């Protein structure tokens, strides 16, 4: 059903307008600007713009850019005369408009495309354009300073200018004139937040054909309020030409008409419930895919959301365009789901499920196309019948009829505006296969959004150029071409989807520039009132724009009182509004591989009076979590958390003084340590690295609380040093899980000072431990690993605290189900794994006995080393007859040992819980000798006996015994990398001989030491275990990931470099 409503009463009749001159009489843009003869209304607006900041409200195609060029030339000449470097900024809202402005030649009533190079020629200025695809976002201060120095006019989008101002690469004081094209967009993220903060503001000249942009019906009062708000934002006042005689005569205007259509047929809509039912079934199937890793679950969530969007596109085409176009939409969806490579098996499975769903939908739609109607697109086919069957919608049929009314002319240039990208793609495909209009060349153009259907910028430019040149006759597009795009030969503009705002209505109508062109608005009968309301709103906007020059209407604009963090040295700033974007950019710059996604996450928590937000950054960020101040809603709380995070990142140095992520890209040579200042040795803080953590299932166990018989898988550790005389004890790893062959059978080198130890791991079957063995094995672990790499006593008597023995009572808290394994010493160095392993139970039993000894000793003393009474060293009844200090026997805390057998013996200090190795007996020193650790400044000289009495409250029973010289333990080092070779290279380059480090030795009375029947080679091996276990744990985790990602355990081997 067609209703052609001529709305020519809104404008003067086209026949009353002057005739356009012939092209041969037209001048070219090569003429100097001074020789161009602007129209009277252009000079009128220019005169106003000279006096004050102005928003020029003029029709599309009226030559607003010519006014801007003349103003730029006058202002530019003035600043060059002053000799002060100032910039002119030309702001265009889109990249297309950065590349193009509209220049109006008043002598010929014709619009010419004006690239930034034409502005340069007409003004004799150095002009450059700036947009994201040019890499501007990554420029630093030096690059911007060079651009500022070399150019006079910078043409850019508002976002580029805003980012440069926030980073303090540009300052608003540098700008003398700002030309703002399509200035009705000057809301949201716009540089006006800087404009209103200074006293010496640049001159503003805004240009728009539609200063009103809100949805819905706008009365004259509504339009006045919106225009006044725009005026206050830009610190400008509107100006429009009241006498339109000259513009109406010179500016081509389109004949407006409306074409209405009926609602879609029920035959097409009947497919919707079938497709939705299939979706519910598929969505449930997709949700069954679960993983233990958040990144994989996030991928599935994204996949489900993407599939939901694709379904929405298909259903939209079915309802709005008909079955044939819905079929095309399904094919496009199927094409978008291209072959997937490099993903894990579980994700590939879900991806294939999506493809199967699309194919099922395609089958449903294909079955609805009756077999008798295979020739549905034949030349003689009745499209009215196709509409009745639901193959095409009444709306699409109306468009086909419009195309047919163009006839056989190939000179037609028709621009069709649609709301959705999928609509543009689908109809473009459909029109190509319609025989009656196949003589037209059809294409589509959309913006470069994140949608899979979007076009790249270079492809957009190619298509637009083809349309301008006439190679493409019919171009479907979204609102990306609504504003400012100039196609002088465009003969018809169609609003296939009804415009939502008066701005959209006015701007799209302005694309029809040819004389006697058409502007067609399509809608169903229910949308008539909506369309007429938009037309009435345009009249209200025109009336409000004419109501100008009232000083009282210009309201003072105040930037919202939001917090701003400003870097004093540069002037760079971040606000609540910009903080979220800055955090996202920081995360994007963090190092990552192609499989990971470095982005922040947020957790909102309700608190009294509002919400608090917890910001969680990626693991390799400068910090991981921060909780922001409370806000009245979730959005404000999120911004507050990001704002606090931005401040902290700058204070920590992660953001530089321009608030740009401080992430250097070092050259290959920078990875080589060249001097000692930049070097770092094993165990230093400079070598600290941040690694993600994951639970290693192979190390978990269930025997923690049990003391019954337990079966383990055994993996033997053997250590062979390149110095033959260096002996290391073997160890065995006992775990409940069986390891893969390439994890449980490995070799690696461990780099110690001036020597290398080769560690080999091999599987040795299974081992059973009874309850008593389990108890003693746990005691060995608890004593030696805490004594060497932790501490056995907590608290400090000197600090006024209570000293507690870590193993005095229940030790369950020392064990975690996630890390339940045993590392036990072996008895024989060359043990062959036949039958049961030769575990060193003698050494293990002595450790268990030492724990019991310390427990009894501490329990005998009231208050756990309290001052309530003196503490004496334990009296060994087995050696009571040997009280003579001259004998060759040494009295230890728990036994008496022949002095000839004490070398390399491992002992535990009962007063500190530290583990030592005996070097020798020092016959020249006893507990009555001066203490070698006294304070020289105090000039106080005390004996060893005095020291232990005052420091620990211990009274020695055998003060005359020789002291023992002991080798202290040390923290475990990273032995997986040869740091010492690097250090040796540095030392060889230094002048003079390097002094070797003196080993740290201490002197302690024997009776304060508990003998552990553990050999020194066991102690030496214990220091190798942290590095070896780190490598094995890495291999275990790799094996675990391999199983989860690939689903197999033997498809590929783990690289030895892991």
UniProtKB/TrEMBL annotation:
Residues 1-31 are annotated as: Disordered. Keywords: Endonuclease, Hydrolase, Magnesium, Manganese, Metal-binding, Nuclease, Nucleotide-binding, Repeat, RNA-binding. Residues 888-1013 form the PAZ domain. Its cofactor is Mn(2+). One of its GO terms (molecular function) is DNA binding. Residues 579-669 form the Dicer dsRNA-binding fold domain. The lineage of its organism: Eukaryota, Viridiplantae, Streptophyta, Embryophyta, Tracheophyta. It comes from the Eukaryota. GO terms for cellular component: cytoplasm; nucleus. GO terms for biological process: siRNA processing. Residues 7-22 have a biased composition (Basic and acidic residues). Belongs to the helicase family. Dicer subfamily. This is Endoribonuclease Dicer-like 3a. Residues 45-229 form the Helicase ATP-binding domain. Residues 395-550 form the Helicase C-terminal domain. Signal peptide: none annotated. InterPro entries: Dicer_dimer_sf, Dicer_dimerisation, Helicase/UvrB_N, Helicase_ATP-bd, Helicase_C-like, P-loop_NTPase, PAZ_dom, PAZ_dom_sf.
